[in-house]
Structure formats: C-alpha cells, structure tokens
Design brief:
The structure holds two protein chains of two kinds.
Chain A (H helix, E strand, L loop, with lengths): L2 H28 L5 E8 L2 H8 L2 E2 L2 E2 L4 H4 L4 E7 L5 H11 L2 E7 L11 E7 L15 E8 H14 L8 H30 L3 H9 L3 H6 L1
Helix pairs in contact in A: 5-6
Chain B lengths: L1 E10 L13 E3 L5 H11 L1 H4 L2 E5 L10 H12 L2 H14 L7 E10 L2 E19 L4 E10 L7 E7 L8 E6 L11 H7 L2 E3 L3 H18 L3 H13 L7 E2 L1 H7 L4 H8 L12 E2 L2 H7 L2 E5 L5 E5 L3 H4 L1 E4 L7 E4 L15
Antiparallel strand pairs in B: 1-2, 1-4, 3-8, 3-9, 4-5, 5-6, 5-7, 7-8, 10-11, 12-13, 14-15
The chains are: A alpha+beta, B alpha+beta.
Chain lengths: 220, 340
C-alpha cells in the first residue's frame, strides 16, 4: 500500500473520529477557564500530509517513514483572548497531559516579527483511543494561541505557503508588518484587560471609557 | 519475541559519588538455564510490567530524553559498551539503601517490532553448602542475585521506529508491596527520567466521570449506592497509585458495579490503567450526591455529608419505600428550570 492510501485509510477510519473525541476531551478539561474563544481539533488533511511527507531537507526526504514520524497527524488548538491567559492554560495542559515536547515559539531575533505561539507534542489521553479503530501514533500537537496569533498564523499559512515559489522581499516585509500589528494588538488588549481587572468599580471603568479618555485610561 | 542480545552489568550504589566505579559488563550466551529463565521473563514482560510510563521531555521542553536516546543508541548498536552507558546511568542514581544490583538488558524482535527489557535484581546473601564424603563445608556468599526471582524492578519498551517510538513503556517494581508507593521514584523518575503515562488529574477525572455516568444512567439502586459510598470515601486514596479495578477492590464494589464503570470506556483495558489519585481533581467532578424520590422530591447534599444530612428508615422490611428526615435552618431557596 502506498503512503497516500495508507494515510487515507488512517485519516478516514481513525484520525477523523479521534479528532472529534479529542476536541470533546479538551473542551472538558479546559471548561471553566476564562477567556477561551474556542477549542478545535482536526485530523491533518490528506493533501497536507502528503505535501509534508514529500518535504526535502538537504536534498533528501525529511521523513524516511512519514506515517510514523509526522507527529501532527492530529492537531488541536486552544484560542484565548489575552496573552496573560496562556500560562494558566499551560498549567492545565501539564495537569492533564504528558508532553514529549513543550516549546514557546518566538522569532529568532528580538527585532523581528513573525510566528508566535505555544506548541506541544502530547500523548493522546487513553480514554479517547478506541481499540477497534486502526492504530495511530499516540501523539498529537497542541497549540495555544491568542486570537491575534491565531488570525495571523492562519492568513500567513495561506499566503506564505503558496506553491508559486518564494515570496518577494516586499511581501515578506508586509507579512512581518502584519505580525507586528498582531503582536501590538495582543499587547494592547492584554494591557487593557489587566487594567479593567484592576478596577474594583465596574461603573468607574465604564465612565472612563465613555468619556473617551483613552490615553489616561491606558496609562493608569 | 526472539531474543538476540542479553547484556548484564554489576551496578554499585554510587549516587553522589564523584568517582564512579568502573562497571563490568558481559554479553550472555543465548542458551542454557539462565537464558531459559530470562527468555520466559522477556516473553511475558508486557503482562508483568503493568504500569504504563512515558519518557519526559528535556528540561528546556525539547523533544529529547537522555535515557531514551541511550536506549535507542543501544538498540542501534547492541554492544556491551552501549549497554554500559545505561548501567552507568543507573549506578549514578543508586543509593546505598538500594544497594548493589545486577542489571540485565535484553533485546529481541518479532517482525518489525523491537523490544528492549531492563531488569534490576538486588544483591542478597546466601549460604552455599559443599557436601564431602566426611564433612560439610558451609560458606556465606555475599553477592547472590535472584535468590528471590520475584523481587526485582523492570521496564519494557516496544517499538518499530527508532525516531518516533520508544517514548512509552511499561514498568513494574516487585520489591514494593505498598499501595502508597507502588513503584519507586528511583526507578521511574531518577533512572528512566520518566513518569506515569496517565497524569493524576487525567486518571481521577476519568474515574469521576465514569462514576457520574453510571450513577446517572443505571436503574440499579445498589450500584448507585455502592458508587456514592465509594465516592464519599475516596478522599483516603489521595496520592496513591490506583486503577479502576483496585478502586473497586478497596471499596468492596460488586463485579456488576466495576463492570458498569468499565462499560463507560471505549477500551475495557482502561480498568487496569494505573494513575496517582488526586482527590482535588476527583471532587471537582463529584461534589454533590442527589437522590430523586418517587414522590417527586429531590434530595441533594455534598457527597461526603449526604448520609449525615439525610437519615433514612425503611417503611417496611419488604418494601422499597423509605422515610427521609433532615433538620436545619433554611438559608436559601431556588426554583430550578428543569432536571434531566
């Protein structure tokens, strides 16, 4: 059986139902935590898997045994409103899952803007594995992102991975600019929610916002 | 599973020692009495080792575990030298209390599946007697191993791909008969740099959800009663390694009740999955016990206080009706929209 057929079988009969159960499981584990926009899980599409399986590195195939080596065949994402929520979510990940990888991804240099996010490779919880379904590798990738990190990475993935070849310098600069904007929006919303949380009197907060005294509010 | 390599090393207790003793190692022959004994242990390793473990990521979060890498390196080369690296790792975490031991590393294959099995036998004393024609010669032996062949620590890893597999294994500690410990931290965390596959929160949530589901769905009042009582007493298990199966044994649950719990899982073998019980996580899911009465009443109280809140007396010996009594001041009352 070739890789595409083998993965298609795994995709249809194991990964898709497993992704649904993973989403339900994650939703249960994270219920009650504030500011979660959504929790989603997906099986890596057949096209994306084949594309990744054929990836070259140093003129050789990056994966010699892609069915076993590609670890994000199941992926999940938790999207939260504010960057301050991420540590609490990360703590919950530790409580419910065993991680074989736990990375905070930031651009290579402090003066660059690009991809930000918290990524894990976690062991699948045993309660979602059905022994009657085809065996899959016991891992999945979990990403925790803010709304703006999510929005940026989705659009960047769509634009930046087009098959026409490398993007021009101008386009790369535009993408870095949008990353900086998303980073800035995250910072500002995070700061705002901290300030709002500090206000003991909700009415007072509302009056400041209504007066339009935004700068004074932000500086407080 | 056919064995292709057996290595053995004498491991001294040297935790914290600046100078580690040299470790002697040997490649053992694949025949003879010792081979037969090790072969039988190797073949039933996955049944014997009943606690699932997972290697931990490196301290910086990278997908790397030094012990796993050494095992994979050994699997690739299968030499006394590569095995010695693992013996040295064990030696460096072995205290005087754990003492001298004999480490066996056994590697075998079945089709594409490769297995590596490690077992550690502690040193013991023994007496050897030589019977001559006119006299007996009695000697004390200080380095006797496997005097009790059932007292050892072991771990087994199966896998196909050296890059992506061998993260999960199964372990056992036959030197411990204490439920509060169950497996020594020295063997799992210090030596293997691993942990139980199922986290305390994950296992305790799983148990709580199963209990809730059975109580909600079963019509068998005895099953409901058994589970409510077990849930109330479960706090005593905090920090102990348990499985659903021995949760049932400890609280005297009937086979029907344990089967009902097991039936809530996709994989019935989860009944034997071991995890460290967390009463904090468990009580997040089971806080209140509720009884619905045939006259339309609903009695609700915190699970641990339910029997103190409501006294019950059977109306007649054969009947199924009870009189419930409770006493207290009214501090709140609510109208509830609907009950499932």
């Amino acid at each position: 059986m070739d890789i595409e057929s083998a993965y298609s079988e795994r995709y249809n009969f194991a990964l898709v139902p497993l992704a649904q159960r993973l989403e339900t499981f994650l939703t249960g584990c994270f219920s009650g935590l504030p500011h979660i926009d959504r929790i989603v899980a997906r099986a890596k599409s057949i096209d994306r898997f084949i594309e990744k399986a054929r990836k070259m590195e140093n003129e050789k195939l990056k994966y010699t045994d892609p069915l076993n080596q590609i670890q994000d065949q199941l992926g999940a994402r938790i999207i939260t409103f504010y960057s301050d929520d991420v540590p609490q979510l990360a703590e919950n990940v530790k409580r419910f899952f065993r991680a074989i990888e736990d990375r905070t991804i930031v651009p290579d240099s402090d003066s660059e803007f690009g991809y930000f996010g918290k990524h894990y490779i976690l062991l699948l919880p045993k309660e979602i594995i059905d022994p009657k379904e085809p065996t899959v590798k016991p891992f999945f990738e979990l990403q925790i992102k803010t709304l703006f990190q999510h929005a940026w990475s989705e659009a960047n993935h769509d634009l930046g991975y087009k098959p026409q070849g490398d993007l021009s310098a101008y386009f790369r600069r535009c993408i870095a600019f949008t990353a900086a904007q998303a980073w800035g929006a995250d910072q500002m919303f995070n700061e705002l929610q901290r300030k709002v949380a500090q206000q003991s009197n909700v009415k007072e907060t509302s009056e400041i916002a209504q007066n339009g005294d935004f700068e004074a509010f932000a500086e407080n | 599973m056919k064995i292709d390599t057996i290595l053995s090393y004498l491991v001294h207790p040297s935790k914290g020692d600046k100078t580690q003793p040299m470790i002697g190692g040997v490649l053992l022959p694949l025949d003879g009495v010792l081979f037969n004994m090790l072969n039988s242990v190797f073949c039933r390793a996955t049944e014997e080792c009943n606690i699932e473990i997972a290697f931990s990521s490196s301290e910086d979060g990278g997908q790397y575990n030094a012990c796993r890498s050494e095992l994979v390196d050994l699997l690739c080369h299968r030499t006394v030298e590569k095995g010695r690296v693992i013996a040295e790792r064990l030696q460096a975490v072995t205290t005087k209390r754990s003492g001298l031991s004999l480490l066996f590393i056994i590697i075998g294959n079945k089709g594409p599946i490769c297995r590596v099995y490690l077992s550690r036998f502690p040193a013991d004393f023994g007496i050897v007697v030589h019977e001559g024609s006119v006299e007996l010669r009695v000697e004390l032996l200080e380095q006797v191993f496997m005097k009790n062949a059932g007292a050892y620590k072991a771990v087994v890893f199966d896998g196909e791909n050296y890059d992506s597999d061998f993260w999960l294994g199964r372990a056992v500690d036959k030197q411990i008969n204490n439920n509060a410990v169950a497996i020594s931290s020295y063997w799992i965390r210090e030596f293997l740099m691993a942990d139980f596959r199922t986290t305390p929160a994950q296992g305790s949530r799983r148990l709580a959800m199963a209990i809730k589901q059975v109580i909600d769905q079963t019509k068998d009042t005895e099953v409901k009663e058994e589970l409510a009582a077990a849930a109330r007493l479960s706090r005593s298990l905090n920090g102990q390694l348990i499985s659903i199966s021995n949760f049932g044994e400890r609280f005297g649950l009937s086979e029907t009740t344990v089967n009902a719990l097991t039936a809530t899982f996709r994989d019935p073998s989860l009944r034997f999955d071991q995890f460290c019980f967390s009463s904090e996580e468990f009580s997040k899911h089971i806080q209140y016990r509720s009884l619905q009465i045939s006259n339309g009443a609903m009695l609700t109280a915190p699970v641990e206080q339910f029997d103190q809140c409501f006294e019950r007396a059977r109306v007649s010996e054969q009947g199924e009706e009870f009189i419930f009594t409770t006493r207290g001041a009214i501090i709140n009352q609510r109208l509830i929209k609907g009950i499932k």
